[in-house]
Amino acid sequence: MKGQGFLKAGQRSLAVVGLVSLSLLGRLPFALATAPPPPLRLEISLSRRQLTLYQGQTPLRQYPVAVGRPGWETPTGQFQVREMIRDPAWKNPFTGAVIAGGHPRNPLGRRWIGFWSDGTNWVGLHGTPNPDSIGHAVSHGCVRMYNRDIEELFEKIKPGVPVIVVR
User: Fold this and answer.
1) Which CATH architecture is the domain 40-166 placed in?
2) Between 20 and 30 A from 116 (CA), which of 103, 157, 164, 165?
3) Does residue 126 carry a catalytic annotation?
4) What is the pTM of this model?
């Protein structure tokens, strides 16, 4: 029964070379096989009351927001995400009273994404217990989002992501 194998002699060599090549390819670093995705960035339009999440030049998702009211305007410019907190506590800047994170009356909702600070005060993105405020200029400078939207965004970004705020 000599010579009755599946492959003839020349074919066996090609099959062995093919198997060795495939096993070596599996050992190459993944980074060589694919390019990294373009970086994420957030753009907030105060006049449109809208936040857009971009990857490179491609808009991935748009969210309606509330922004700072007259006298407490949301700062414009180029910033970056500096801190991210789940269930943040809120301290009333006038009375010093604190509302615990996760409490239904907490004006920050369930997530905080801080992008501006003067060393004492912060401005950032957060949820709200008042969904009717979305779409209006009503905050003390922060950018309010629906709770489901801030929770979704929180999972997509990380500290260092650029935040661009325009009129």
Assistant:
1) Beta Barrel (2.40)
2) 103
3) yes
4) 0.78
